[in-house]
């Protein structure tokens, strides 16, 4: 394969900018969407509608960014399909004795399909007779070949060590899975159609964010001199905060740590000072008011607040030192929008600090050893 940066200074920036197109590929260019039925079809899973009745639990196994995609998958699948989801760090699973039963569907999520710990965990599950499907990017990879069924996420080759478009495609496919299973359970036709329409609108909304990249470059200038940054969010925004903090630390080497905003009072609030800024992911919906009160708590202690939001609100805008507003969407889709400014924030901070952006020190694209 011929890899080029196509005029971009780094693969990371190129891959962030490919996301409108790559998420569309995750939807099979529309072919995985069933607009009339308000549903989705992932034929590679080799699951019949009747099989969905037998699935009592979904257990996602992954590492790194794929693990955080899994955490979002948990939120979205539990919400739309009403099936309990567990997400496991594959490295933690290996030495353990995983519980495997016939009613659980195991889902391995991996960009490379070669991550040593994910493979080892899946081997152990299969050894015990567990049913495993894969959400993999690399065609023909070890995990793609091992699993009983699977879906390629079609992100295309990802060169930057820090994963961006693969993450978005993993989350997109997990949304499709939630929709497909959910529609055979309790999602109505009209809600299903709404979600399909939202998915179709997604590439254009991501493009809208990318077109405003200069705003994030300015925000990065204000973040780059800190030693440490907190990332905070509630509900679906908590896994977004985890992935956003990972992007920041990987490429900028600034210590970035994510917490659920609700746990602020249980420790991290002690860190807040002029020297410790916070990035809040604050979207409209159930958690909005509680998140705003967390922002007030941080402000009251002299902490600078950067906000990624998806609605206009003068109260929030007045509280925030800096705010970036992404297009509004259904809550299930919102992580695919709120993560994009966070990726760019990581990129521009690393750029300002002169880091080795595509090849961060000490890291590898694929961790094939224990
Ligand atoms: C490494 C990479 C990450 C990736 C993780 C899992 O840590 O640097 O970007 O998320 O491995 O890789 P996988 O290929 O299994 O998704």
UniProtKB/TrEMBL annotation:
<comment type="subunit">
    <text>Homodimer.</text>
</comment>
<dbReference type="GO" id="GO:0005975">
    <property type="term" value="P:carbohydrate metabolic process"/>
</dbReference>
<keyword id="KW-0315">Glutamine amidotransferase</keyword>
<dbReference type="GO" id="GO:0004360">
    <property type="term" value="F:glutamine-fructose-6-phosphate transaminase (isomerizing) activity"/>
</dbReference>
<keyword id="KW-0032">Aminotransferase</keyword>
<dbReference type="GO" id="GO:0006002">
    <property type="term" value="P:fructose 6-phosphate metabolic process"/>
</dbReference>
<keyword id="KW-0677">Repeat</keyword>
<dbReference type="GO" id="GO:0005737">
    <property type="term" value="C:cytoplasm"/>
</dbReference>
<dbReference type="GO" id="GO:0006047">
    <property type="term" value="P:UDP-N-acetylglucosamine metabolic process"/>
</dbReference>
<dbReference type="GO" id="GO:0006487">
    <property type="term" value="P:protein N-linked glycosylation"/>
</dbReference>
<keyword id="KW-0808">Transferase</keyword>
<keyword id="KW-0963">Cytoplasm</keyword>
<dbReference type="GO" id="GO:0097367">
    <property type="term" value="F:carbohydrate derivative binding"/>
</dbReference>
<protein>
    <recommendedName>
        <fullName>Glutamine--fructose-6-phosphate aminotransferase [isomerizing]</fullName>
        <ecNumber>2.6.1.16</ecNumber>
    </recommendedName>
</protein>
<feature type="active site" description="For Fru-6P isomerization activity">
    <location>
        <position position="365"/>
    </location>
</feature>
<feature type="domain" description="SIS">
    <location>
        <begin position="48"/>
        <end position="188"/>
    </location>
</feature>
<comment type="function">
    <text>Catalyzes the first step in hexosamine metabolism, converting fructose-6P into glucosamine-6P using glutamine as a nitrogen source.</text>
</comment>
<dbReference type="GO" id="GO:0046349">
    <property type="term" value="P:amino sugar biosynthetic process"/>
</dbReference>
<feature type="domain" description="SIS">
    <location>
        <begin position="219"/>
        <end position="360"/>
    </location>
</feature>
């Amino acid at each position: 394969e011929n890899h080029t940066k196509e005029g971009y200074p780094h693969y990371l920036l190129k891959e962030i900018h490919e996301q409108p197109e790559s998420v569309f590929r995750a939807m099979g260019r529309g072919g995985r969407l069933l607009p009339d039925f308000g549903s989705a079809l992932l034929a590679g899973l080799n699951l019949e509608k009747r099989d969905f009745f037998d699935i009592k639990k979904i257990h996602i196994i992954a590492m790194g960014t794929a693990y955080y995609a899994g955490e979002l998958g948990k939120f979205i699948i539990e919400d739309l399909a009403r099936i309990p989801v567990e997400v496991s760090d594959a490295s933690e699973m290996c030495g353990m004795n995983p519980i495997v039963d016939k009613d659980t569907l195991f889902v391995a999520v991996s960009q490379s399909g070669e991550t040593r710990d994910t493979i080892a965990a899946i081997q152990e599950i299969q050894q015990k007779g567990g049913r495993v499907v894969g959400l993999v990017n690399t065609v023909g990879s070890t995990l793609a070949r091992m699993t009983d069924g699977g879906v390629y996420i079609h992100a295309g080759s990802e060169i930057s060590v820090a994963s961006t478009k693969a993450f978005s495609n993993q989350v997109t496919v997990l949304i499709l899975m939630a929709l497909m299973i959910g529609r055979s359970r309790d999602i109505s036709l009209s809600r299903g159609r709404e979600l399909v329409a939202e998915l179709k609108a997604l590439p254009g909304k991501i493009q809208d964010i990318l077109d405003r990249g200069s705003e994030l470059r300015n925000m990065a200038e204000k973040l780059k001199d800190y030693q440490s940054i907190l990332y905070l969010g509630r509900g679906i925004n908590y896994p977004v905060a985890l992935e956003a903090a990972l992007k920041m630390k990987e490429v900028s080497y600034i210590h970035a740590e994510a917490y659920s905003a609700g746990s602020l009072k249980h420790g991290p609030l002690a860190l807040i000072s002029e020297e410790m800024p916070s990035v809040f992911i604050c979207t409209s919906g159930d958690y909005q008011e509680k998140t705003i009160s967390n922002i007030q708590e941080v402000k009251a202690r002299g902490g600078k607040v950067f906000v990624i939001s998806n609605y206009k609100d003068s109260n929030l805008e007045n509280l925030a030192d800096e705010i970036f507003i992404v297009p509004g969407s259904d809550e299930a889709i919102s992580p695919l929008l709120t993560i994009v400014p966070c990726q760019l924030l990581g990129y521009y901070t690393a750029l300002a600090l002169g880091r080795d952006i595509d090849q961060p020190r000490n890291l590898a694209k694929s961790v094939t050893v224990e």
